Structures are given as C-alpha cells and as structure tokens.
C-alpha cells in the first residue's frame, strides 16, 4: 500500500500531507480543527472537513459552525461535507450518499430513525443544545461569511470524502463516530490505497476512568463510586455499559468496519486522554495567553464549558480528547510515520484489539439485532452465530445489560477490547500523555505547551471576529413604543420552529396591535427543529423590531418518555426536508439580520465555584415556564386573560398546566393547529414516516400524552385540523397573491421561503413531498387574528386523544363521552390567500431591518 507503518523509517515527503477531518464539532473537536489550521501548510494541508451527524451535534448547526471558523481563519478553500439522503437496502446494498445520520445497524432508506446509541447523549442543556450553539458563544464571536448550508447544493459527506481521497493520498482524522468513514470504505474499496493512515480518537482498551471515585481516605462513608475504574466514559449509561467510549458507542458496527479495513489505524483512546485532564494550571495559563482570535474563541469556549460542567469536578473530569489526537497525529507525521509512532506527546504501544458490536451469547435472536433478527440471510452477508450476531444494546436502560444486584452493567457495545483470537487487529495505541520536559513549568503535560504555543502563533491567524469584521459594528435592540395605544387580546404563540411556524410568527407580528398583543413565544425542541434553532426566533423578532418580546425554551422530550430518548421525534427526518432544513430555515436563516439576543448557557450572576444546582442561578435563556409566569403575572387589568396559539406538539402547554395550577384560570382560549378528527370519514393523517399510524397528525403524534392532557382539559379549545389546513396548501396560489401584494421586507422574505419550498418539492419530490405540511400551518395565525374575514363554518364535537400504542398515538376520535371542542370545518379559502398576502404587504408594523446584508451595510459606515 506504500505506507510507512511496517518499516523502521520513511523518507520525508516533499509535498504537504493531505488531511481530511471527520468531526462531530463538539467543543474539543473544534480545538482540534483550529490546531490543524495553525500548522504550516507546507507540511500539513487540511483539504476537507466532513460532519459526523449522529453524535454530539446536529448536522445543520455543525456545518455552519465549521463554515464560520474557516471564514475567521481565512480558509474558505477547505471543502466541507455534511449529510446525504441515500439509504441502505434491506439486503445490505449501500446506495450513494448515505448521510450518516443513523448508525449503520439502524440505517434504512430514510433519514428518519431510532436513536439506539445517540440517546446516551443529552438532548438539551449539557448536551446537544449547548454544543450546537457552543453555549451561545458561536453567534456572539464568530464572523459570518458567504458560505452556508443551502438545500440540494450542500456537498454531502460521502461526496467530499470521495473527491478528496480520489485527488491524492490522504490521512484521515476521525474524531466523532465512525459512520461516515465506514460507509466510505464499504462503498469505495478501490480508494483504500489512497488512505495513508486513519487516526482515531475513541475507545478505551486498558483505561480506568478516574471520575466518579470516592476520596481515598473514605472521609464520606456515604460516597458510592460511579464510573470509577470503568473502561469507558458513558456518564449517562455506565450502569448498563461501563466499557464503551462515546465516539465508538455512537456506531460500534461502523467502528468495527474501520478497524478491520486493512488500513493502518492509530488509536488515541481514553487510556491516553484520561492522563491529560484540563488542569487548573493549564486553564490559568490559557487565560493569560490569548494573543489570537482563535485562542480567544477556544479559551472562552473552555471557560463556558467549565462554568456549566457537572458539579465542581471540571478539573478532574474534562480531558484533552480530540485536540490531543491532533497533536499526537501531527507529531507522528513529523517524525516520518515511524513504525513505533515516535512523537512528542504520547507513549505508544502496539496492541491487538477489536470493537465489540454485540454481546454474547451469539446467534440468539431476541429482537435487538436488526442485522440478524427475522432474516434467513444476515444483512451485509454477516456470519451466522458470529461476533455481530448477539444481543445489541437498545439504549442506556436496556434490561439485558443490567446485572441483578450489581452496580455495573454487562453490555460491551463499542468496547475496544484487547483480544488474541482471529478478530484481533494490530493497532498502534497511545497509552499515556508524556510529562512536560520543563519540570519547572506549572503545566504538567508536554502537549499543553504545544497547544498554547500553536494557538497563539500570529502566523495563519484569524482575521477578525464578528465585532471586528465591521468597522462600525454595534448591537441595537429594537423595541417599539406602544404608549397610549389600544392593545388587543394578549396572545402567546407556542411553536416548534418549523418553516410554517416562522411565517405564522411574522403574520402575528404584523397583526394590528388593537387586535393582537403578542406577549411572548414558547418554543419546543421535540418537533420539526432542534432547540438551538431558537436563535432564528430571536432574529425574526429583531427584524420586525420586537426585541421586547420574551422567548421561552421549553421541553426537548415528549411527556412520559425518557429524558434520554426519541420515541416520537424520531419520526422527523434528519436530512433533506427534515431537521437539516428546519434548523437552517432551508438555508435562509443566515440571510436574516442577527439579533443581539441569542440562546446562552451563561449563568446569571454566578461565579465559578458557586453551587451549580442553586435555584437562584438560572440559565441566561429563559424557560417556557418562566416566560409564561412572567406574562400571566403582568396582565392588567387583572381580569385579562391569555389566548394561546399552538403550532407544534403540546408539550409546553401541558407542562405549564401541570406545574402552574392557576394556569387554566388565566387562559381565555387555546387555538390548536394540528390533529385530524376521525369521524367515520376517511381522513388520513400525515405522519408519513410511521406507516402503521395512518390517522395521526404530526403535532399530536409528537407528544400524544400532552395532546391528551390539553385537548381533554376544561379549557376552551378551537381546533384547526389537518383537513382544514389542506384546503389552503396551494403554493401557486399563495405565491401569486404575495406577488400581487405590496412589497415589504417580510412579504419578500415569505415569498422567498415559500418559493424555495415549492421549488424543492418540484426538483426532489421524494425528499420534499411533505412541504404542504408547513404551508397549512399558516392557517392558525390567520384564523386567530381575524377569522370573520374567512367566513368559517365551525362544528362542535366530543373528542378523545388516543395514546399508548405507536400505531394509534395522537389520533383524535369522536367519542360521545369525550371533551367537546370547536373544530374548523370549512372557510373561504380564496379569501384566506388574499388576507394573508395583504397583511404581510401592509406598510404598518413592518420590518425595521430587512436582512443581514442590510445590517452589514449599516455596520460599514458611521451612523
């Protein structure tokens, strides 16, 4: 294969070493990215970055984060790939452009699917929400360039890998799950010879987890060890699997494919990274050495990580994971890829290992293993009763994995296990971090010095951040003066941030104040967008001059489901037409003006070292409950009541009613956009990704228990059901009326977004067949503002919401013993299109700043 491992030494190559980085863009991942970008390009040339989309970040947020860092560093030449909508056939045939959103074992023909392994990663605070936003720092620090995710134009992960490796011999750095690389190797075996080495951060071979241990003096007799001594680091699942590390656990079968590919793998596992925790001495030195923008960004990210870390254990439980791999890999390559892996930063040793993908006994079909269960021929032609044929862990709470009477589980999925049988692969493994050669330095590891030195080099340094990108940058909050104006009924909008919801929000903001007084917005993270998309809500409000409206972040899980899980939201696709598009507003979010307001994980008035669970120290981002209670307490006169419009799962409202016992007393009406009433007529639902559930509508399905709590409560409910929405889903008609209406920034934006949805549906009907779902959601806002213009026909029916069975969850049936609700049956659809377009074209209450381009012009000249 023409590679260096296997020989004592190698000649120094004249050409720079080509590198492809596959990353999930966790905090330590972009530390590794920046470290690579600072290397001399005459020696090391980072050619491409691909996004690992099934681990610590969501694809849309991760890819734009990469674009922003590369823009700051002046490296818009680097090829970036994410996602893809290909699938794997039932016989194991892998189609082109599989996006890596799901582990190989779960991948079918759709990007919707289960979170078997990923559910070990928290969804909200201290999990994907914080990583997607980089704790709120990403938007306040990084500049924004021209590159962004654009539907059907964004290069896929597989496309970037194929193009990059085909162009020349390349070294792969893998610092997320191994899904993308495994897919590439399984579908492009002819390109293996172009891969020099694969450097992988992950696994634990002989490691002993130093976290969760009791003091040696046993001063606290009630202390019970947690992860102490475990091979792995799954802090959410160590009681069921104490052996796995997150990167390997994200897709064990993929990691196995990479390890057994025949390409030399150099592994930097927990064995080594556990020996380089971020010490207070290193942290203090880093605080004093921030001479470049990239050093500032990395330090402030580390600081926020520390200040939001679990308990007060940061300095003993946060390690240099992926950044350490980048240092070890670069140093080995500088030493001409010596057979023994000589380098400055880690002690190396060859070990014979494999990756465990299933648990013994093998060959027993128990319903946990889709590669074998119910198949005459195993998927991918795997060996019957072989190492892949055992029980596959189904999640952190898999009963199979628990040992009766024991504190530690028995499952080993993702374990990089030392073996001596035919499964063994000889791998060069980092054993421990080398001590600092300067014995007088307060930093005890050699890599600490290199990391700070490299990040603070002025060579190949960041050009500017957001505030220095523009000579006259300033943050302005736009708040209207409504003094002495008559206010209409107070309204709270509860949304899951789908494309339709954002247009509904704009419509509500355009409504005359004397009719609608929009008091607050609640967002849920268990619907058509992830929680981090709350920043787009802030941007819409900023555009419309309503920075006075509070935004509350609600639940990220359906009621009655595990915190670590995806029982219902797994029905929403991850790729095109799903979260990838919703989280970016189909690529248009970055054309909106940037609000000074954003999600932030910073504590209000909390100093480092203060208790983390003190009720006085709340996140900078308000919760849905906090916004609700603030609004309800501020109502004047006291007899005023709130009208609620919901356009998403009913999780937030149900939770508020459960916690705030006076909540029902301050609610006048609830308008619910969603549901499909089964009344003897053949009215199909729209949960297209769950074919066994034919009659549920998405908003009800995404949290059926919450839907039942709200719909069957004693509140006055008006239902805007799916069959009513489907009367106004003509893209041609709504675009025509918008085109004829007066032009405002908001009407132009609405036309742009709706045109895009229509074009995507026509170009790729398989991926975008469901765009009418978002178009229909506008009906709720139009009906709420002034339903009299629609000449509606209403019906009152007693209904019941079904729960407890996925094939029926969220369905609404007529039941004579049920709760009576008002249901919109029919209306003047032609009038609807005109009403919508006319209000968006009204010059009153129009946008105060129309776009990011307009904002850039404002920041480029004195005011």
Briefly say what this structure is.
It holds the Pfam family IU_nuc_hydro. With 863 residues, the protein is α/β, with parallel strands linked by helices.
Task: Tell me the layout of helices and strands.
Elements (H helix, E strand, L loop, with lengths): L16 E7 L3 H11 L6 E8 L7 H14 L6 E3 L46 H6 L3 H5 L15 H10 L3 E6 L3 H9 L7 E7 L44 H4 L2 H8 L5 E4 L1 H4 L6 H9 L4 H15 L6 H4 L4 H13 L11 E10 L60 E3 L6 E9 L12 H10 L10 H4 L19 E7 L3 H12 L5 E8 L10 H10 L7 E3 L25 H4 L41 H11 L7 E6 L3 H9 L7 E7 L3 E2 L19 H4 L2 H8 L5 E4 L1 H4 L5 H10 L4 H19 L8 H5 L1 H9 L6 E9 L10 E3 L4 E8 L2 H12 L11 H8 L4
Parallel strand pairs: 1-2, 1-4, 2-3, 4-5, 5-6, 6-9, 10-11, 10-13, 11-12, 13-14, 14-16, 15-18, 16-19
Antiparallel strand pairs: 7-8, 7-9, 17-18, 17-19
Which key terms come to mind for this protein?
disordered N terminus, Inosine/uridine_hydrolase_dom, Inosine/uridine-preferring nucleoside hydrolase domain-containing protein, globular, Inosine-uridine Nucleoside N-ribohydrolase, Chain A, ten-stranded mixed beta sheet, alpha/beta, 29% helix, 863 residues, nine-stranded mixed beta sheet
Radius of gyration: 27 Å
Helical proportion, percent range: 25-40%
Domain unit count: 2
Q: Briefly, what CATH class of the largest domain? A: Alpha Beta
Described by the principal axes of the CA atoms, the overall outline is: globular
Distance between termini?
Answer: 63 Å
Strand order of the main beta sheet, please?
12-11-10-13-14-16-19-17-18-15
Q: CATH homologous superfamily of the largest domain, by name?
A: Ribonucleoside hydrolase-like
DSSP strand tally: 19
Low-pLDDT parts are 1-9, 604-619
Q: Sheet bearing the most strands, described?
A: 10 strands, mixed
What structural class results from the helix and strand content? alpha/beta
On the 0 to 100 scale, the average pLDDT is 93
Q: What proportion of the residues form beta strands (DSSP E)?
A: 5-15%
CATH topology of the largest domain: Inosine-uridine Nucleoside N-ribohydrolase, Chain A
CATH architecture of the largest domain: Alpha-Beta Complex
> If helices are DSSP runs of H or I spanning 4 or more residues, what is the number of helices?
29
């Amino acid at each position: 294969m023409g590679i260096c491992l296997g020989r004592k030494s190698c000649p120094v190559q004249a050409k720079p070493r080509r590198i492809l980085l596959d990353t999930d863009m966790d905090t330590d991942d972009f530390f590794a990215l920046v470290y690579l970008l600072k290397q001399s390009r005459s020696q090391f040339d980072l050619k491409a970055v691909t996004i690992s989309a099934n681990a610590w970040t969501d694809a849309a947020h991760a890819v734009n984060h990469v674009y922003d860092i590369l823009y700051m560093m002046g490296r818009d030449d680097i090829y970036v790939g994410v996602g893809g909508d290909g699938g794997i056939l039932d016989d194991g045939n892998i189609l082109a452009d599989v996006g890596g959103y799901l582990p190989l074992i779960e991948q079918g023909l759709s990007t919707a699917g289960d979170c078997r392994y990923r559910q070990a990663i928290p969804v909200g605070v201290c999990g994907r929400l914080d990583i997607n936003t980089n704790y709120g720092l990403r938007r306040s620090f990084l500049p924004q360039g021209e590159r962004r995710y654009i539907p059907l134009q964004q290069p896929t992960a597989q496309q970037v890998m194929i193009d990059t490796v085909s162009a020349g011999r390349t070294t792969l750095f893998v610092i997320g799950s191994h899904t993308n690389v495994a897919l590439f190797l399984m579908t492009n075996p002819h390109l293996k010879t172009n891969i020099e080495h694969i450097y992988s951060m992950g696994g634990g071979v002989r490691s002993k987890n130093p976290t969760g241990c009791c003091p040696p003096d046993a001063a606290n007799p009630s202390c019970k060890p947690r992860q102490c001594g475990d091979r792995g680091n799954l802090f959410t699942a160590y009681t069921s699997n104490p052996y796995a590390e997150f990167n390997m656990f994200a897709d064990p079968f993929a990691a196995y494919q990479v390890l057994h590919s025949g390409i030399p793998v150099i592994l930097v596992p927990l064995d080594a990274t556990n020996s380089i925790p971020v010490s207070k001495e290193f942290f203090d030195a880093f605080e004093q050495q921030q001479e470049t923008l990239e050093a500032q960004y990395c330090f402030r990210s580390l600081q926020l990580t520390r200040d939001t870390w679990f308990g007060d254990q940061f300095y003993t439980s946060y390690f240099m994971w992926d950044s350490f791999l980048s240092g070890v890999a670069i140093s080995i390559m500088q030493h001409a890829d010596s057979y023994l892996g000589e380098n400055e930063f880690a002690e190396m040793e060859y070990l014979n290992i494999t990756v465990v993908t299933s648990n013994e006994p093998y060959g027993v079909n128990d319903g946990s293993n889709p590669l074998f269960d119910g198949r005459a021929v195993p998927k991918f032609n795997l060996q019957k009763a072989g190492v892949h044929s055992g029980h596959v862990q189904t999640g952190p709470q898999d009963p199979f994995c628990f040992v009766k009477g024991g504190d530690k589980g028995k499952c080993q999925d993702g374990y990089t296990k030392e073996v001596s049988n035919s499964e063994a692969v000889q791998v060069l493994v980092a054993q421990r971090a080398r001590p600092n050669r300067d014995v007088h330095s307060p930093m005890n590891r050699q890599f600490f010095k290199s990391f700070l030195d490299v990040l603070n080099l002025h060579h190949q340094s960041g050009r500017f951040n957001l505030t220095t990108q523009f000579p006259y940058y300033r943050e302005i909050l736009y708040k209207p003066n409504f003094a002495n104006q008559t206010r209409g009924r107070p309204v709270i909008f509860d949304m899951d941030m789908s494309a339709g919801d954002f247009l509904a929000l704009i419509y509500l903001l355009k409504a005359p104040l004397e009719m609608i007084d929009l008091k607050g917005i609640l967002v849920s993270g268990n619907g058509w967008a992830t929680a981090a998309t709350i920043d787009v809500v802030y941007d819409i409000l900023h555009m419309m001059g309503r920075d006075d409206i509070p935004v509350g972040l609600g639940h990220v899980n359906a009621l009655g489901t595990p915190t670590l899980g995806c029982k219902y939201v797994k029905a929403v696709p991850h790729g095109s037409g799903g979260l990838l598009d919703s989280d970016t507003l189909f690529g248009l979010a970055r054309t909106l003006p940037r609000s000074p307001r954003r999600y932030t994980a910073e504590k209000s008035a909390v100093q480092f070292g203060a208790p983390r669970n003190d009720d006085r120290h709340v996140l900078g981002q308000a919760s849905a409950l906090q916004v609700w209670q603030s609004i309800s307490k501020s109502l004047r006169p006291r007899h005023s009541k709130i009208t609620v419009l919901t356009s998403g799962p009913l999780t937030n409202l149900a939770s508020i009613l459960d916690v705030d016992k006076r909540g029902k007393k301050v609610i006048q009406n609830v308008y619910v956009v969603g549901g499909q009433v089964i009344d003897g007529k053949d009215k199909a639902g729209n949960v297209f990704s769950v074919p066994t559930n034919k009659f549920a509508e998405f908003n009800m399905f995404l949290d059926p228990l919450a839907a039942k709590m709200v719909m069957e409560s004693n509140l006055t409910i008006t239902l805007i059901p799916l069959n009513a929405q489907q009367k106004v889903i003509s893209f041609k008609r709504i675009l025509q009326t918008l085109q004829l209406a007066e032009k405002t920034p908001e009407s132009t934006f609405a036309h742009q977004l709706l045109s895009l949805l229509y074009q995507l549906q026509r170009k790729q009907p398989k991926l975008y067949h469901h765009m009418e779902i978002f178009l229909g959601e506008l009906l709720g806002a139009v009906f709420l503002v002034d339903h009299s213009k629609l000449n509606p026909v209403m019906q009152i029916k007693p209904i019941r919401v079904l729960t407890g069975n996925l094939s029926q969850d969220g369905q609404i049936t007529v039941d004579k013993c049920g709760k009576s609700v008002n249901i919109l049956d029919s209306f003047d659809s032609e009038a609807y299109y005109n009403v919508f377009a006319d209000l968006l074209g009204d010059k009153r209450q129009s946008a105060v700043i129309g776009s990011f381009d307009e904002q850039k012009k404002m920041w480029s000249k004195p005011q």
